[in-house]
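I have a small job for you when you get a moment. Can you supply me with one protein entry, sequence and fold together? It will help me judge whether the discrete encoding reads sensibly. Write everything out right here, beneath this request:
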Amino acid sequence: MNPITWLWGKIKAHEKVHVAWCVTGIVGCLMLYGVLQERIMTMPFGEGAAAEVFKYSLFLVLCNRLTTCAVAIVMLVYSEIYPVAPIWTYFAVSLSNVIATTCQYEALKYVSFPVQTLGKCAKMLPVMIWGILMLRKKYKAADWGLALVITSGCTVFLLTGDVKSKVSESLWQSSIYGLALMLGYLGFDGFTSTFQDKLFKGYNMTTYNQMLYTTMCSSILSMLGLFSSGQLPLAFSFVNRHPDALSSMMTLSVAATVGALFISYTIKTFGALVFATIMTTRQFLSILLSCILFAHPLTGGQWLGSTMVFGALYYQGFAKKDGGKHGAKTEAPPKDTERGEAAAQEEPLLGGKQEEK
């Protein structure tokens, strides 16, 4: 028997080991993604007079999408590779996703990583608003209450401590540009998930098919943006001068792609509650790791804001679990489209076909 097949069978045979494997994959990959994201966007490459900070966020988006596209192509070698939905729908979703991801990376030039990570937790509110406007969804008072607590926690975090990035020139830039970029990220990311629901509804589309064509379209849009802005040769020149920068970018892209595969597999195998709990824990650990590695001390008020946000997220997860036990019908939670965390997947992405439970 193949040793990998034998080991995989042993992992699946013990539920706790199986869950631990998923937790390790998600937390490990996405914490590495977070550390490299901050390293690339805020720390100089090179030494002395040759030291310079990477400025071309769209190039980082391009590297990320090309890596994911390559993985999707490999997975679809023995499957139907043609587009299932009209090609314009993939471009429409990709456009808003590229803008959201670019805003996310650009924000690190002005605000610290803990601010960026905690701010992304506030996407629940814009997703709900887009859901009402585009899909005519209705949410319960408890959902609005949770969104308010999370947003309030983020506000407390912003108002009670330092939010400035290490490469930001002034607090004014952090306050205006940084927060504007975070608002742009929240708005476009919430729009992406809602738009994705609306456009792809009714198509019998596999995960890899959607992954292939959305990342392919995102790559084209990123390339056009880099070319039209004149940043493409500048980005190539930068990585030529600093090969370690390209290595960090490729490692980040692989970590993001593998993390997305672990996420899809975890949702398929263990459900959204286990996934949400893992992701909430991962975000908290990412903030702690950033504070240690990149010296972002938090004030008492910022710890309070963090507790409000993560407490609300954990409460949301366990409240849905209790509601499910009593057969309560609840609105599906807002989705997270970052790095492929978008949807409950139709098939497992790792480990092959799952047995009926």
Summary: The CA atoms of residues 110 and 285 lie 22 Å apart. Confidence is low (pLDDT under 50) at residues 326-357. DSSP finds 13 helices and no strands in the chain. The first helix runs from residue 3 to 13.
